[in-house]
Write a structure and sequence with these properties.
With about 300 residues, this protein is of the alpha+beta class. About 70% of the residues lie in helices and about 10% in strands. It has helices spanning about 1-15, 20-55, 65-70, 80-95, 105-115, 145-150, 165-205, 210-215, 220-255, 260-265, 275, 280-300; strands at about 60, 95-105, 135-140, 155-160.
Amino acid sequence: MRAQFVLSEIGVGLRRNLTMTFAVVVSVALSLALFGGALLMREQVSTMKDFWYDKVNVSIFLCNKNDAKDMPKCAKGAVTKEQKDQIKVDLEKMDAVETVHFETVDEAYKHYQEQFGDSPMAGNITPDQMQESFRVKLDDPQKYKVVATAFAGRDGVQSVQDQRSILDQLFELMNGMNAVAVYVMILMLVIALILIVNTVRVSAFSRRRETGIMRLVGASGFYIQAPFIMEAAVAGLIGGVLACAMLLGGRYFLIDGGLALQEKLNLINFIGWDAVLTKLPLVLAIGLLMPAIAALFALRKYLKV
């Protein structure tokens, strides 16, 4: 009988404040969708770092005959065979180095044509303008400075470049986007909490006579508060379900269908469905508990008779 009464009161409360309940559902859904999206974005960045950092190389570009005029580091002329052999020997001795690949001028020109063959400037580039280089794979990309310090000022070396620095700019951009999503999520959560508290207050005020009578006949505080708390929890749970639907739909639209980024950007290792599914229970739990706890604190004052 008590359970039936509580359930009936939940239905009455939700119908009585339908507009505010709808606002609570929408704000909770959006804030939790942003919360889940921020978690997934962070995991995507981590996945991409693991995937790409394992593939980046340190490139040691060697001086060619054309660099002597423009590059102070190559003032002594093009790199000699003895210098190349010594650089290779020193690289292979280093504990931080996993593999060493020497790229010839012809290989560098071929790779340039593959990447920039459609560029208007590609026709003005000749093989003798390209540079020989050592492509060095490290066992730990964080050890780039060890190689840079050892070879940056050596005769015959034009420059030492870390490919990871290019990726870092991309990851900084993605982390910035993630931070913006977190800030918007916090704002939406605050709005949702304010709406929940106001909805509970309005509901409690509209039923103050009934709650006063229940208090006078000896009903416990929890029994009186339960319908209001569950109203907020139900609205939050509906918002959580909508947020889960948005996360699932967003992942499908962006990666598998619609934009189909998985096919268009097949060099990127996107997060799988398992990453999304593991976040859904957390989103639902927050959607259920956050409004209930907010309602509990709001009722401590407004149900005193």
